[in-house]
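Reopening: structure tokens for the adenosine-5'-diphosphate complex, inputs below.
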Amino acid sequence: MSITKEDVLKKYFGYDSFRPQQSEIIDTVMHNQDCLVLMPTGGGKSVCFQIPAILRPGLTVVISPLIALMKDQVEALRGNGVNAAFLNSSLSSAEQDQVMWQAKIGELKLLYIAPERLFSGNTFDFLREWNVNLFAIDESHCISSWGHDFRPEYRQLSSLKQRFPNVPVIALTATADRVTRRDILKQLGIEHAETFVASFDRPNLSLSVLPGRKRIPQIQSFIKKHENQAGIIYCLSRKGTETVAASLQKAGFKAEFYHAGLPSEKRSKVQEQFLKDDIQIIVATIAFGMGIDKSNVRWVIHYNLPSNVESFYQEIGRAGRDGSASDTALFYSYMDIITRQDMINNSEQSEEQKELLHAKLNRMKQYAEADICRRRILLSYFNEAVEQDCGNCDVCQNPRTRFDATIIAQKALSAIVRTDQKIAMGMLIDILRGSRNRAILQHGYDRLPTFGVGHDLRGEEWAEYLSQLLNSGAMDIAYDEAHSFKLNPFSRQILKGERKVELVKFIPLAERKAREEELAPKEKPKQEIIRDALFEKLRTLRKQIADSLGVPPYVVFSDATLSEMAQKKPVSEAQMKTVSGIGAEKFRRYGETFINEIVAFARENTQPGTRVVKGLTYIETLDLYKAGYSVKVIGEKRDLNPMTILSHLIKLKEDGHQIDLKALIDDKSYQTIIKAAQEMSIRKADPIKPLFELLNEVYDYGQIKLALTIMEEEM
Ligand code: ADP
Ligand code: ZN
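Re-run output (same inputs, fresh job):
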């Protein structure tokens, strides 16, 4: 009987079903057809080539640009019982020889290799001897100068198809745009490849935009809700990463900064500590994240606005790769836009290029200012139509209401006129609210007719509305004149009452949060990580195991697997294997250890009469059995009848525990029972009452069942 792709998914990866497109992609590869796979980060690209690699004879060569990523992927594959290795400059030449030897004798299913290594020396001659059945080109957008991460060494892959015309190629990327897509096919010489575009939606990521004021306190309250959960804070500048990290450290959080200006040893160290869950928070520039496969990043915060939607999506995509619920937040204020515009204007780019960058920035601004479902905006950027609001973004949870704000706008604009367009946000708010501070008095602004006309709104409300006015073009800002506000033709129309202004109603942050929390339970996707006491115990165990193996904890089990385990509390092999993410090899390696932990937990937490775990009763029998007690004594100790104990032991044996069933019954009884069974053609699965009667009720049901089980085993 041949093994199917579904079997492989279950046995090696521990998953019950494919995600959308995976199955079709695998079929295409199995038919020797080239294909291009577009899936978001965390979408599940790897199994698309790993499963064909396992199913087919020969070797699958995976081309990947990032050495760190390679190591993790190989580690994860080995953890699942798949023979894989990598070849790159981090290995000694003896280690490389060892890998080449394994490839030669056909021991490897997958070989990860960096492109520069593939084209150096005589690797190609070796490839011909290695019975290559598939080339998988990960991060394939690196071959295109249209993509956002062009790598010249990828260009050499163009010759791959000519050299191996009969070996199928699967190219994979998380970059969606059409130009890059077409270029990948052309560069690889696989124009006829079938293209699969998976949905870019990542429903497990919550989306929210926070007002860009008092960012640090907001971050602290965000992190407090994510105790012990790993997350990344992206900052625009190196300096920014350092100051944010410092203020978090001061507040007692385990945070480190990371940027390209650090010595490389320091960078690797920080990265390593983060992967291994030794540091909870990384404050980083965008230099951080490439080549990080950590699947249990639970949150991402953007301290500053990213330059475009692609980058933003890629960065938040580093959260929740394991599919479990994760949170993202973006800070936004008008200053962020100005900083970004500035950066573009002052860059060395051509005018044409600058225009493109401004257009891209503008799409990012639209996202940040959205008053409709944010996920709709994101996905429409990737040309995906969305039928429904997502329910998992801040706009869905706090629907915006618009109101006629013409008078508010007029108050602000006239204060700007009366101060000769020389004042910036802070001073304007003080004038409107009528604050008598030194600067105001010094300038005599307290004598303006507009002084205090806006005292009915709070400072933060004014800040919000002024940002909105700016963003909607109702006024301008001169960032080269100390950010003073300026009038434009629209402003004048508003002042004259020729134009109306609508703004989005301000909701105080505390109120928003409260509402989000109220909504949270029913709106959030079900893959929620539940962090109860058992989860924390299992998490500690996972960390211990990972440390002893020198691998990151998520390589042992994902957060999702751990959470499901803590909920299901499996205490047998069969139960354990129903947990998503636990295949045969994972069970073999860690199953026993985790079962013991669950049992220990259940014991500590079981009150008489309650049942914390299903199957704990079997475990108790097993422990006594292992301690050498007879069935009768176990029955006495547990206050159960021997027949029940026998049925436990049979079940335990079926679940794979070491039980010597034959020792539980004397040979004469055994022979008598099976002789009768054979006469009546009764087997283990049949009703045994007739046998019980035929044997004159001398043997009880437990003994009969036992004899039949042994008989079947021996057959
Ligand atoms: P990508 O390479 O697209 O970023 P991965 O291949 O690393 O994503 O997959 C992301 C996560 O999803 C991994 O933890 C992987 O084990 C998991 N995964 C992949 N396919 C499935 C599936 N069919 N069911 C459940 N989890 C899956
Ligand atoms: Zn939404």
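The radius of gyration is 32 Å. The mean pLDDT is 89. Marking as resolved unless the reporter disagrees.
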